Amino acid sequence: MPTSQHQQNGIRAALLSALLLGTTPILGKLAYQGGLDPYSLTATRTLIAAGVMWFFYIAIPSNRKFIYIYPAGLLISFSAGALNGLSSLLYYNGLTRIDAGVGQMLYSLYPLFVVILRRLDGQRVSNWTKVRLAMAIVAITLLVRTGSGQVDLIGAGLMIGAGFMYAWHLAASQRVLYEMPAPTVTLYVLTAMASVVCVAYLIHGPTPISTQGVPPMLGLAIVTVFSRLLMFLGVKRLGSVQTALLGATETLIAVGLAIMLLGEQLVMRQWIGAMILMTSLILIIFEPGMGKSIFKRKPREQSTLQQAPPRP
Known about the structure:
Elements: H1 3-21, H2 24-33, H3 38-59, H4 71-94, H5 100-107, H6 110-120, H7 127-143, H8 153-177, H9 182-204, H10 214-238, H11 240-247, H12 249-262, H13 268-282, H14 291-295
């Protein structure tokens, strides 16, 4: 596939994934209002999501090819899924202690963690990425300051920890995505996620699931399947750093929904932060090789994004 079309598809996938993920804190809050606790919520939604994926992969002959995975890829996928499972546990426990909008803003520090992890792994980061990252940090700093209200420190720590685990899982996923299709990686990452959160659920102790909490929980299961598929498509075609920076749009979506559906409010400095964050995302057109891919449709060369990673 030509580089331009390849990157355009990656941008669309990453942005649509962010759109879906922006609904997760709202659905989580609605599930808590319906009587679910963090452990039952993470276990049931992830187990349903993994079960649905396995069903469609086995039931539809054309999808069965995505079940195959080589041993090293399986190990990396399961490692990434375990990290994502831990991220989910931290995220939904943190969400019980702080507002959905503020929590999502803290969680959205994960692009910073992705850049740090990829830097430690030897990947070069462009100057434009550094500028956009600095703007994102300033934006998040403004967004988390809530006037006279005080953010729960434990809840804030859980959200930041969730962001770090999510970033680590993105960086790990990029390794296996060099050689495996995104649907295959999604299947095994979700399977590992389900295993981790179900073990945590059993350790915590099973709790009853109220009927009021079922609709938002099912909504989260649907979001989990499609957001992961789209996210891994983005990672495969753009890399983990660019996907993470595009994924920061989920913060704005979450804040907007929190205001409309949950009655949460933002002060002026938070709106300024939101504008800075959006600007940092628009600046993707100046990334090396990215701007031309957005505005020019003429194919130039074959993509080099799927080359094998450097040997350690």
